[in-house]
Specification:
single chain; 10-stranded mixed β-sheet; 6-stranded parallel β-barrel; 6 helices; disordered C terminus
Length: 387
Protein backbone atom coordinates (compact mmCIF):
# COMPACT_ATOMS: atom_id res chain seq x y z
CA UNK A 1 0.00 0.00 0.00
CA UNK A 2 1.38 3.40 -0.95
CA UNK A 3 2.34 5.97 1.68
CA UNK A 4 -0.15 8.60 2.81
CA UNK A 5 0.22 12.35 3.17
CA UNK A 6 0.00 12.77 6.93
CA UNK A 7 0.31 16.56 6.61
CA UNK A 8 -3.36 16.61 5.54
CA UNK A 9 -4.44 15.77 9.08
CA UNK A 10 -4.44 17.78 12.29
CA UNK A 11 -2.72 15.91 15.14
CA UNK A 12 -2.91 18.66 17.73
CA UNK A 13 -5.44 20.69 19.70
CA UNK A 14 -7.45 20.40 22.89
CA UNK A 15 -4.54 19.15 24.98
CA UNK A 16 -5.78 20.96 28.12
CA UNK A 17 -9.43 19.98 27.82
CA UNK A 18 -11.33 18.60 30.81
CA UNK A 19 -11.91 14.83 31.21
CA UNK A 20 -15.14 13.31 29.93
CA UNK A 21 -16.96 12.55 33.17
CA UNK A 22 -20.07 10.78 31.88
CA UNK A 23 -20.18 8.86 28.58
CA UNK A 24 -23.98 8.62 28.73
CA UNK A 25 -24.14 12.37 28.06
CA UNK A 26 -22.53 12.01 24.64
CA UNK A 27 -24.84 12.96 21.73
CA UNK A 28 -27.23 10.17 20.83
CA UNK A 29 -25.86 9.82 17.31
CA UNK A 30 -22.35 9.37 18.74
CA UNK A 31 -23.61 6.72 21.13
CA UNK A 32 -25.14 4.86 18.20
CA UNK A 33 -21.86 4.94 16.29
CA UNK A 34 -20.14 3.51 19.36
CA UNK A 35 -22.71 0.72 19.71
CA UNK A 36 -21.84 -0.42 16.19
CA UNK A 37 -18.20 -0.51 17.34
CA UNK A 38 -19.13 -2.77 20.24
CA UNK A 39 -19.17 -0.04 22.91
CA UNK A 40 -22.25 0.38 25.10
CA UNK A 41 -21.83 3.51 27.22
CA UNK A 42 -24.67 2.36 29.50
CA UNK A 43 -23.02 -0.95 30.40
CA UNK A 44 -22.19 -0.87 34.11
CA UNK A 45 -20.95 -4.47 34.29
CA UNK A 46 -17.57 -3.78 32.69
CA UNK A 47 -14.53 -3.87 34.97
CA UNK A 48 -13.20 -0.63 33.49
CA UNK A 49 -13.92 1.88 30.73
CA UNK A 50 -11.64 4.10 28.67
CA UNK A 51 -12.49 6.51 25.86
CA UNK A 52 -10.22 8.77 23.82
CA UNK A 53 -11.91 11.53 21.80
CA UNK A 54 -9.70 13.06 19.12
CA UNK A 55 -6.43 14.33 20.58
CA UNK A 56 -6.99 14.76 24.26
CA UNK A 57 -10.51 14.32 25.70
CA UNK A 58 -10.38 11.21 27.89
CA UNK A 59 -12.81 9.22 30.03
CA UNK A 60 -11.32 6.60 32.37
CA UNK A 61 -12.91 4.55 35.17
CA UNK A 62 -11.96 1.30 36.91
CA UNK A 63 -14.15 -0.93 39.06
CA UNK A 64 -11.89 -3.82 40.04
CA UNK A 65 -8.99 -4.25 42.42
CA UNK A 66 -5.80 -5.34 40.68
CA UNK A 67 -6.63 -3.53 37.44
CA UNK A 68 -4.58 -0.53 36.32
CA UNK A 69 -6.26 1.56 33.62
CA UNK A 70 -5.20 5.08 32.71
CA UNK A 71 -4.24 7.49 29.96
CA UNK A 72 -0.85 6.46 28.59
CA UNK A 73 0.53 9.95 29.28
CA UNK A 74 -0.46 9.67 32.93
CA UNK A 75 1.08 6.19 33.11
CA UNK A 76 4.37 7.44 31.64
CA UNK A 77 4.55 10.10 34.36
CA UNK A 78 3.46 7.79 37.19
CA UNK A 79 5.73 4.87 36.28
CA UNK A 80 8.89 6.78 35.32
CA UNK A 81 8.44 6.45 31.57
CA UNK A 82 7.36 2.77 31.53
CA UNK A 83 10.89 1.76 30.47
CA UNK A 84 10.10 -1.98 30.38
CA UNK A 85 7.13 -1.54 28.01
CA UNK A 86 7.08 1.74 26.10
CA UNK A 87 8.38 1.31 22.52
CA UNK A 88 10.07 -1.98 23.41
CA UNK A 89 8.40 -4.17 20.77
CA UNK A 90 8.14 -1.61 17.97
CA UNK A 91 10.75 0.75 16.51
CA UNK A 92 9.69 4.42 16.39
CA UNK A 93 11.68 4.73 13.15
CA UNK A 94 10.09 1.74 11.48
CA UNK A 95 8.04 3.87 9.07
CA UNK A 96 6.22 7.19 8.71
CA UNK A 97 3.35 5.93 10.86
CA UNK A 98 5.46 5.01 13.88
CA UNK A 99 7.47 8.22 13.57
CA UNK A 100 4.33 10.36 13.58
CA UNK A 101 2.89 8.44 16.56
CA UNK A 102 6.17 8.88 18.43
CA UNK A 103 6.45 12.60 17.72
CA UNK A 104 2.75 13.48 18.19
CA UNK A 105 1.43 11.34 21.02
CA UNK A 106 -2.28 12.16 21.29
CA UNK A 107 -3.02 9.63 24.00
CA UNK A 108 -3.95 5.99 24.27
CA UNK A 109 -4.27 3.73 27.28
CA UNK A 110 -2.18 1.70 29.69
CA UNK A 111 -3.99 -1.33 31.07
CA UNK A 112 -2.49 -3.93 33.37
CA UNK A 113 -3.89 -6.96 35.16
CA UNK A 114 -1.78 -7.47 38.26
CA UNK A 115 -0.15 -10.81 39.11
CA UNK A 116 -2.70 -13.56 39.72
CA UNK A 117 -5.75 -11.30 39.26
CA UNK A 118 -8.47 -12.84 37.09
CA UNK A 119 -10.69 -10.09 35.71
CA UNK A 120 -13.94 -11.74 34.58
CA UNK A 121 -15.78 -8.71 33.17
CA UNK A 122 -14.27 -7.01 30.11
CA UNK A 123 -12.41 -3.73 30.06
CA UNK A 124 -14.14 -1.47 27.55
CA UNK A 125 -11.90 0.81 25.48
CA UNK A 126 -12.73 3.16 22.63
CA UNK A 127 -10.94 5.48 20.22
CA UNK A 128 -13.34 8.02 18.72
CA UNK A 129 -12.75 10.71 16.10
CA UNK A 130 -14.96 13.73 15.40
CA UNK A 131 -14.47 16.52 12.88
CA UNK A 132 -12.92 16.88 9.45
CA UNK A 133 -9.27 16.17 8.61
CA UNK A 134 -8.77 15.10 12.23
CA UNK A 135 -5.74 12.97 12.98
CA UNK A 136 -5.40 10.74 16.02
CA UNK A 137 -2.08 9.14 17.03
CA UNK A 138 -2.32 6.91 20.09
CA UNK A 139 -0.10 4.44 21.90
CA UNK A 140 -1.64 1.56 23.88
CA UNK A 141 0.14 -0.81 26.24
CA UNK A 142 -1.52 -3.96 27.56
CA UNK A 143 0.16 -5.99 30.31
CA UNK A 144 -1.08 -9.27 31.76
CA UNK A 145 1.18 -10.23 34.63
CA UNK A 146 1.98 -13.78 35.71
CA UNK A 147 -1.13 -15.92 36.18
CA UNK A 148 -3.53 -13.04 35.49
CA UNK A 149 -6.46 -12.98 33.07
CA UNK A 150 -7.79 -9.97 31.15
CA UNK A 151 -10.50 -9.45 28.53
CA UNK A 152 -10.48 -6.21 26.55
CA UNK A 153 -13.36 -5.20 24.30
CA UNK A 154 -12.13 -2.38 22.10
CA UNK A 155 -14.01 -0.24 19.63
CA UNK A 156 -12.84 2.38 17.15
CA UNK A 157 -15.19 4.73 15.33
CA UNK A 158 -15.66 8.09 13.67
CA UNK A 159 -18.68 10.31 14.14
CA UNK A 160 -21.37 10.25 11.50
CA UNK A 161 -20.29 13.56 9.95
CA UNK A 162 -16.49 13.18 10.07
CA UNK A 163 -14.65 13.35 6.75
CA UNK A 164 -11.09 12.44 5.79
CA UNK A 165 -9.95 11.38 9.25
CA UNK A 166 -6.80 9.41 10.13
CA UNK A 167 -6.15 7.02 13.01
CA UNK A 168 -2.61 5.87 13.83
CA UNK A 169 -2.57 3.29 16.61
CA UNK A 170 0.49 1.78 18.28
CA UNK A 171 -0.22 -1.19 20.55
CA UNK A 172 2.20 -3.35 22.53
CA UNK A 173 1.00 -6.53 24.27
CA UNK A 174 2.83 -8.29 27.12
CA UNK A 175 1.50 -11.62 28.41
CA UNK A 176 3.63 -13.02 31.22
CA UNK A 177 3.98 -16.63 32.38
CA UNK A 178 0.62 -18.37 32.64
CA UNK A 179 -1.32 -15.20 31.79
CA UNK A 180 -4.29 -15.00 29.43
CA UNK A 181 -5.34 -12.05 27.28
CA UNK A 182 -8.43 -11.93 25.10
CA UNK A 183 -8.48 -8.82 22.94
CA UNK A 184 -11.49 -8.11 20.72
CA UNK A 185 -11.43 -5.11 18.37
CA UNK A 186 -14.43 -3.86 16.38
CA UNK A 187 -14.03 -1.06 13.84
CA UNK A 188 -16.77 1.31 12.66
CA UNK A 189 -14.87 3.84 10.56
CA UNK A 190 -16.20 6.19 7.90
CA UNK A 191 -15.76 5.61 4.18
CA UNK A 192 -13.06 8.33 3.97
CA UNK A 193 -11.05 7.27 7.04
CA UNK A 194 -7.40 6.21 6.83
CA UNK A 195 -6.43 3.64 9.47
CA UNK A 196 -2.86 2.55 10.22
CA UNK A 197 -2.40 0.34 13.32
CA UNK A 198 1.05 -0.98 14.24
CA UNK A 199 0.94 -3.78 16.84
CA UNK A 200 3.27 -6.33 18.38
CA UNK A 201 3.20 -8.64 21.36
CA UNK A 202 5.18 -11.21 23.31
CA UNK A 203 3.81 -14.21 25.20
CA UNK A 204 5.82 -16.05 27.85
CA UNK A 205 5.65 -19.69 29.00
CA UNK A 206 2.13 -21.08 29.28
CA UNK A 207 0.60 -17.76 28.29
CA UNK A 208 -2.41 -17.40 25.98
CA UNK A 209 -3.16 -14.56 23.56
CA UNK A 210 -6.45 -14.51 21.65
CA UNK A 211 -7.16 -11.71 19.22
CA UNK A 212 -10.56 -11.16 17.58
CA UNK A 213 -11.05 -8.53 14.87
CA UNK A 214 -14.33 -7.48 13.26
CA UNK A 215 -14.81 -4.97 10.42
CA UNK A 216 -18.28 -4.94 8.87
CA UNK A 217 -18.52 -1.28 7.83
CA UNK A 218 -16.93 0.91 5.16
CA UNK A 219 -13.40 2.27 5.58
CA UNK A 220 -11.34 4.37 3.19
CA UNK A 221 -8.13 2.40 3.58
CA UNK A 222 -6.80 0.22 6.35
CA UNK A 223 -3.44 -1.47 6.79
CA UNK A 224 -2.91 -3.81 9.73
CA UNK A 225 -0.39 -6.61 10.38
CA UNK A 226 0.11 -7.39 14.09
CA UNK A 227 2.99 -9.67 15.12
CA UNK A 228 3.01 -11.98 18.14
CA UNK A 229 6.13 -13.77 19.37
CA UNK A 230 5.60 -16.91 21.46
CA UNK A 231 8.81 -16.91 23.46
CA UNK A 232 7.95 -19.30 26.30
CA UNK A 233 7.32 -23.03 26.25
CA UNK A 234 3.67 -23.92 25.79
CA UNK A 235 2.55 -20.42 24.80
CA UNK A 236 -0.48 -20.13 22.51
CA UNK A 237 -1.70 -17.42 20.10
CA UNK A 238 -4.93 -17.30 18.09
CA UNK A 239 -6.12 -14.70 15.59
CA UNK A 240 -9.74 -14.69 14.39
CA UNK A 241 -10.97 -12.07 11.93
CA UNK A 242 -14.18 -11.27 10.08
CA UNK A 243 -13.81 -8.52 7.46
CA UNK A 244 -16.25 -7.06 4.93
CA UNK A 245 -15.19 -4.58 2.23
CA UNK A 246 -18.00 -2.67 0.50
CA UNK A 247 -17.38 -0.66 -2.68
CA UNK A 248 -14.73 2.00 -2.06
CA UNK A 249 -13.07 0.20 0.86
CA UNK A 250 -9.44 -0.96 0.65
CA UNK A 251 -8.21 -3.28 3.40
CA UNK A 252 -4.72 -4.78 3.62
CA UNK A 253 -4.94 -6.93 6.72
CA UNK A 254 -3.24 -9.92 8.26
CA UNK A 255 -1.32 -11.23 11.25
CA UNK A 256 1.92 -13.02 12.02
CA UNK A 257 2.79 -15.58 14.67
CA UNK A 258 6.37 -16.58 15.47
CA UNK A 259 6.75 -19.91 17.27
CA UNK A 260 10.03 -19.37 19.09
CA UNK A 261 9.83 -21.97 21.87
CA UNK A 262 8.99 -25.68 22.15
CA UNK A 263 5.36 -26.80 22.39
CA UNK A 264 4.02 -23.44 21.24
CA UNK A 265 0.90 -23.33 19.09
CA UNK A 266 -0.48 -20.72 16.73
CA UNK A 267 -3.67 -20.43 14.71
CA UNK A 268 -4.89 -17.78 12.28
CA UNK A 269 -8.45 -18.00 10.97
CA UNK A 270 -9.85 -15.27 8.73
CA UNK A 271 -13.13 -14.84 6.89
CA UNK A 272 -13.27 -12.05 4.34
CA UNK A 273 -16.12 -10.95 2.13
CA UNK A 274 -16.16 -8.27 -0.53
CA UNK A 275 -19.25 -6.65 -1.99
CA UNK A 276 -17.22 -4.34 -4.23
CA UNK A 277 -14.12 -3.38 -2.28
CA UNK A 278 -10.60 -4.80 -2.11
CA UNK A 279 -9.18 -7.04 0.60
CA UNK A 280 -5.58 -8.20 0.79
CA UNK A 281 -5.70 -11.08 3.27
CA UNK A 282 -2.27 -11.94 4.71
CA UNK A 283 -1.16 -14.52 7.22
CA UNK A 284 2.22 -15.76 8.42
CA UNK A 285 3.32 -18.51 10.81
CA UNK A 286 7.03 -19.05 11.33
CA UNK A 287 8.69 -21.73 13.45
CA UNK A 288 12.21 -21.59 14.87
CA UNK A 289 11.73 -24.26 17.56
CA UNK A 290 10.39 -27.80 17.80
CA UNK A 291 7.99 -29.39 18.49
CA UNK A 292 5.46 -26.73 17.54
CA UNK A 293 2.12 -26.60 15.73
CA UNK A 294 0.60 -23.90 13.55
CA UNK A 295 -2.41 -23.62 11.27
CA UNK A 296 -3.40 -20.82 8.93
CA UNK A 297 -6.83 -20.61 7.29
CA UNK A 298 -7.87 -17.69 5.09
CA UNK A 299 -11.08 -17.88 3.12
CA UNK A 300 -12.60 -15.16 0.96
CA UNK A 301 -16.02 -14.75 -0.59
CA UNK A 302 -16.91 -12.42 -3.47
CA UNK A 303 -20.51 -11.23 -3.55
CA UNK A 304 -21.44 -8.73 -6.27
CA UNK A 305 -17.90 -7.77 -7.35
CA UNK A 306 -14.69 -6.67 -5.72
CA UNK A 307 -11.32 -8.34 -5.18
CA UNK A 308 -9.87 -10.74 -2.61
CA UNK A 309 -6.14 -11.52 -2.62
CA UNK A 310 -5.11 -14.22 -0.13
CA UNK A 311 -1.41 -14.47 0.82
CA UNK A 312 -0.75 -17.31 3.30
CA UNK A 313 2.86 -17.95 4.37
CA UNK A 314 4.52 -20.73 6.36
CA UNK A 315 8.22 -20.62 7.19
CA UNK A 316 10.49 -22.94 9.15
CA UNK A 317 14.09 -24.13 9.21
CA UNK A 318 13.58 -26.94 11.74
CA UNK A 319 12.72 -30.62 11.49
CA UNK A 320 9.64 -31.87 13.28
CA UNK A 321 7.40 -28.81 13.04
CA UNK A 322 3.73 -29.15 12.09
CA UNK A 323 2.56 -26.21 10.00
CA UNK A 324 -0.44 -26.21 7.68
CA UNK A 325 -2.53 -23.74 5.73
CA UNK A 326 -5.77 -23.60 3.82
CA UNK A 327 -6.69 -20.75 1.50
CA UNK A 328 -9.73 -20.32 -0.73
CA UNK A 329 -11.36 -17.48 -2.65
CA UNK A 330 -14.62 -17.84 -4.52
CA UNK A 331 -18.26 -16.97 -4.91
CA UNK A 332 -21.44 -18.45 -3.49
CA UNK A 333 -22.22 -21.67 -5.31
CA UNK A 334 -25.46 -21.52 -7.28
CA UNK A 335 -26.46 -24.97 -6.05
CA UNK A 336 -26.32 -23.70 -2.44
CA UNK A 337 -28.69 -20.87 -3.30
CA UNK A 338 -31.01 -23.22 -5.20
CA UNK A 339 -31.01 -25.67 -2.29
CA UNK A 340 -32.25 -23.01 0.13
CA UNK A 341 -34.72 -21.58 -2.39
CA UNK A 342 -36.22 -25.04 -2.76
CA UNK A 343 -36.96 -24.86 0.96
CA UNK A 344 -38.94 -21.67 0.75
CA UNK A 345 -36.38 -18.82 0.80
CA UNK A 346 -36.16 -16.23 -1.93
CA UNK A 347 -32.79 -15.54 -3.56
CA UNK A 348 -31.84 -12.63 -1.27
CA UNK A 349 -32.81 -14.60 1.85
CA UNK A 350 -30.80 -17.59 0.64
CA UNK A 351 -27.76 -15.42 -0.05
CA UNK A 352 -28.04 -13.74 3.36
CA UNK A 353 -28.25 -17.12 5.10
CA UNK A 354 -25.11 -18.37 3.36
CA UNK A 355 -23.22 -15.15 4.12
CA UNK A 356 -24.27 -15.30 7.77
CA UNK A 357 -22.94 -18.83 8.05
CA UNK A 358 -19.68 -17.87 6.35
CA UNK A 359 -19.09 -14.83 8.58
CA UNK A 360 -19.62 -16.78 11.79
CA UNK A 361 -18.48 -14.89 14.89
CA UNK A 362 -19.45 -17.66 17.36
CA UNK A 363 -15.81 -18.69 17.76
CA UNK A 364 -14.95 -15.28 19.20
CA UNK A 365 -16.81 -15.72 22.48
CA UNK A 366 -18.44 -12.27 22.28
CA UNK A 367 -20.82 -11.01 25.00
CA UNK A 368 -24.41 -11.91 24.15
CA UNK A 369 -25.64 -8.33 23.40
CA UNK A 370 -22.65 -7.67 21.14
CA UNK A 371 -23.04 -11.03 19.43
CA UNK A 372 -26.67 -10.13 18.69
CA UNK A 373 -25.67 -6.74 17.22
CA UNK A 374 -23.02 -8.40 15.01
CA UNK A 375 -25.53 -11.00 13.78
CA UNK A 376 -27.98 -8.22 12.90
CA UNK A 377 -25.33 -6.39 10.89
CA UNK A 378 -24.28 -9.53 9.06
CA UNK A 379 -27.91 -10.38 8.26
CA UNK A 380 -28.20 -7.07 6.38
CA UNK A 381 -25.57 -8.17 3.89
CA UNK A 382 -26.96 -9.43 0.62
CA UNK A 383 -26.10 -9.70 -3.04
CA UNK A 384 -26.82 -6.02 -3.50
CA UNK A 385 -23.91 -4.90 -1.31
CA UNK A 386 -23.01 -4.04 2.26
CA UNK A 387 -24.69 -1.89 4.88
Amino acid sequence: MSSIDLSRFNFSGGENSAPIEDLTRLPQEDQQRLVLAGIDVHDTKVSGAFMQLNHADVHCTTRQEGLDLMDIRAAIKKFDGLPQYYWKLLDPNRDEITRMAYEHLNGGYFVRARKGVKISQPVQSCMFIKGNAAGQAVHNIVVVEEGAELNILGGCATSQHSNDAAHLGITEYYVEKGGKLTFTMIHNWGDSTTVRPRSAGVVEAGGVFQNNYILLKSVGSLQSYPRIDLNGEGAVATFNSVIVTPTGSYVDSGSAIHLNAPHTRGEIISRTLTTGGTIINRGFIGASATPVKGHLECKGLIVGGGRVHAIPELDSCRDGVELSHEAAVGKIAQEEIEYLMARGLDEDEATSTIVRGFLNVDIMGLPAPLKKAMDEQISKLNAGGAM
